[in-house]
């Protein structure tokens, strides 16, 4: 029987992905590589190799004698490792659980929130006990658990799977000409441009409205905590047969955008906390749906490639989004315009979802018929790491 | 020499509570300390207020209707300390002023570093600019000043800004482990901050590292063994 992958795997992936935000870029940019390799060699070996590389990157970082060593090892190598883990794993989860794709994806990506919360106190503890070298060494060991998690990605024949084009390159090229896919990818470029802003700038905003260190940390932790809940809840909700998944996605993206627009209204600790909780929940909710949604747009055959490609596109949004918000803040003196802009990005993204073919026509159930592609897990797999 | 005149009061009010005030001085100053009486006591007559420094009673008290003050010229370290005013009536109410040099903060948590690495220790003075900084290391129970010109390839002392000093220790060894002090010299005295340096060998984190890696190997083995076992079962069935 198929083993539930959610818990163990999700938690492991999250543990690795939490460490460092620079590797996030490598993770997203390396998406297509992860898809291509796993289509060619299978999800399991690629994920295991990825797990090994990410551990290796952190391990080498422990011996760095220069900043550039760290960027190359922790940033590049570990990030590459995570790219090789992420895409195949989420693709596999999507393919193996066609009937409960959204819920399965939600559980899988919620692992990131769990480890995010665990690493919050763990990383400072490691730094205090072992210094940064020792901390990197132990985080490398924790990352190696991805190899064990990857081993669980048993290659299984999936019944009723629509055969997509087997060749890698034609597959990728085809996707680039696929109108709906491009619109979907663009949606998430826009989403990513706004999504990370509260996570990256949240603590600074808390200080701006007068919260001290302790309270700012509380706001951020609360946001990360409900994020996990949102992921599972939305995954479960979308699995309830009623509305097509893309409508759920639209709703959550819209809601997230609206909450973002309301964020500047949080000018006290209580107000900011409440809005942060709302934002965290909504932001978490759209993660599994983003991935499950790829299947609705491109079909199972193209799923893994689509995930990888979408991630690569997304990276432009995520790389530019938070710095842009920071720039707006510097120009205007506070974060109000930054959050409004971020919300606008999300709303624009939600409008694009309306143009997708699956939106107005009801698709055949939520499952593996009609060649629903494996959900491509892609996009914001982890909330931004808490400041280390 | 520049003299600054400063005024500090404390209200003598509720009996039983001890009232204390810390006054930070980094350079020579003229200070007036006053103890003022709360309105509820203004009806009392023949109140005796004494100013003391330690056991020594001070004279030359300026008295107004309900306040008693002393004027001090703080020119050097010997004049710093704790000054108290005591009201003797039915109950004894007193207040204390602590005149001190600015405090220097070291670091609560130890700085962890590894053999062969470079450690950087930073000391800051908040608000006041020291005349000079000196670093000490502890040798047994003694504090030994660090001479960075003598041991230039081991210690580097930098004054990054007026308030901040840096001690860099190169090529760490186990012997460098211990407590360090950064001392700021002010016109009126010196003030120290404490820092702790821990030098570890890479073996220390290596043990938990290997334990976790062993755990990974075990897990992977279990996964593959289980898979082979279940495949065999399928074949037999």
TrEMBL record, chain A:
This is MOT13 protein. Residues 364-388 are annotated as: Disordered. GO terms for cellular component: membrane. Residues 1-361 form the Major facilitator superfamily (MFS) profile domain. The keyword Transmembrane applies. GO terms for molecular function: monocarboxylic acid transmembrane transporter activity. Keywords: Membrane, Transmembrane, Transmembrane helix. It is found in: Membrane. It comes from the Eukaryota. Pfam families: MFS_1. Residues 374-388 have a biased composition (Pro residues). It is a multi-pass membrane protein. The chain crosses the membrane at residues 41-63, 70-90, 102-127, 134-153, 181-204, 216-239, 245-265, 272-291, 303-325, 337-360.
Automatic annotation (TrEMBL), chain B:
The keyword Membrane applies. The chain crosses the membrane at residues 209-229. Residues 31-96, 102-201 form the Ig-like domain. One of its GO terms (molecular function) is cell-cell adhesion mediator activity. CDD domains: Ig. GO terms for cellular component: axon; plasma membrane. It comes from the Eukaryota. GO terms for biological process: axon guidance; dendrite self-avoidance; homophilic cell adhesion via plasma membrane adhesion molecules. Keywords: Immunoglobulin domain, Membrane, Transmembrane, Transmembrane helix. This is EMB protein.
């Amino acid at each position: 029987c198929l083993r539930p992958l959610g818990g163990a795997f999700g938690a492991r992936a999250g543990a690795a992905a939490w460490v460092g935000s620079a590797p996030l870029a490598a993770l997203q940019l390396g998406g297509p590589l992860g898809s291509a390799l796993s289509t060619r060699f299978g999800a399991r070996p690629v994920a295991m190799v990825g797990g090994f590389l990410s551990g290796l990157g952190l391990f080498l970082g422990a011996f760095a004698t220069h900043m550039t060593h760290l960027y190359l090892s922790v940033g590049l190598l570990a990030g590459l490792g995570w790219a090789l883990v992420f895409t195949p794993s989420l693709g596999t989860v999507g393919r193996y659980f066609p009937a409960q794709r959204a819920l399965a994806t939600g559980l899988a990506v919620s692992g990131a929130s769990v480890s995010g919360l665990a690493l919050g106190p763990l990383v400072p503890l490691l730094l205090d006990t072992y210094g940064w070298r020792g901390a990197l060494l132990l985080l490398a060991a924790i990352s190696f658990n991805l190899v064990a998690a990857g081993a669980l990605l048993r290659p299984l024949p999936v019944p009723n799977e629509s055969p997509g084009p087997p060749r890698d390159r034609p597959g990728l090229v085809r996707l680039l000409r696929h109108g709906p896919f491009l619109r979907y990818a663009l949606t998430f470029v826009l989403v990513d441009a706004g999504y990370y802003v509260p996570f990256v700038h949240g603590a600074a905003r808390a200080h701006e409205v007068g919260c001290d260190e302790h309270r700012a940390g509380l706001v951020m932790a609360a946001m990360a905590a409900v994020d996990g809940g949102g992921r599972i809840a939305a995954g479960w909700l979308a699995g309830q047969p009623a509305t097509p998944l893309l409508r759920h996605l639209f709703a959550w993206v819209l809601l997230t955008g609206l909450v973002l627009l309301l964020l500047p209204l949080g000018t006290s600790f209580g107000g900011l906390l409440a809005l942060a909780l709302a934002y965290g929940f909504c932001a978490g909710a759209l993660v599994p749906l983003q991935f499950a949604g790829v299947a609705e747009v491109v079909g199972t055959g193209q799923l893994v490639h689509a995930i990888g490609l979408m991630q690569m596109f997304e990276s432009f949004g995520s790389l530019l989004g938070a710095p842009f918000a920071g720039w707006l803040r510097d120009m205007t003196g506070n974060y109000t315009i930054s959050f409004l802009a971020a919300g606008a990005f999300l709303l624009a993204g939600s409008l694009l979802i309306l143009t997708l073919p699956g939106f107005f026509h009801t698709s055949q159930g939520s499952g593996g018929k009609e060649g629903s592609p494996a959900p491509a897990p892609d996009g914001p797999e982890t909330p931004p790491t808490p400041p280390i | 020499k520049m003299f600054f005149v400063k005024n500090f009061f404390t209200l003598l009010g509720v009996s039983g509570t001890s009232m204390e005030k810390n006054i930070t001085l980094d350079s020579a100053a003229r200070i007036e300390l006053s103890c003022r009486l709360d309105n509820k006591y203004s009806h009392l007559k023949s109140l005796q207020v004494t100013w003391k420094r330690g056991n020594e009673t001070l004279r030359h008290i300026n008295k107004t209707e309900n306040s008693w003050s002393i004027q001090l010229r703080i020119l050097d370290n010997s004049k710093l300390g704790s000054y108290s005013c005591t009201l003797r009536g039915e109950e004894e109410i007193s207040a204390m002023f602590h005149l001190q040099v600015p405090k220097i903060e070291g670091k609560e948590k130890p700085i962890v570093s590894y053999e062969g690495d470079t450690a950087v220790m930073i000391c800051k003075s908040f608000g006041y600019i020291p005349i000079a900084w000196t670093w000490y290391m502890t040798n047994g129970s003694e504090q030994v000043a660090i001479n960075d010109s003598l041991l230039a390839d081991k210690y580097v002392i930098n004054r990054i800004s007026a308030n901040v000093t840096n001690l860099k220790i190169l090529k760490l060894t186990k012997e460098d482990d211990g407590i360090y002090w950064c001392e700021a010299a002010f016109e009126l005295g010196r003030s120290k901050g404490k820092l702790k340096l821990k030098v570890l060998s890479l073996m220390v984190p290596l043990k938990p590292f290997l334990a976790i890696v062993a755990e990974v190997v075990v897990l992977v083995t279990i996964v593959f063994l289980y898979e082979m076992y279940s495949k065999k079962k399928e074949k037999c069935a």
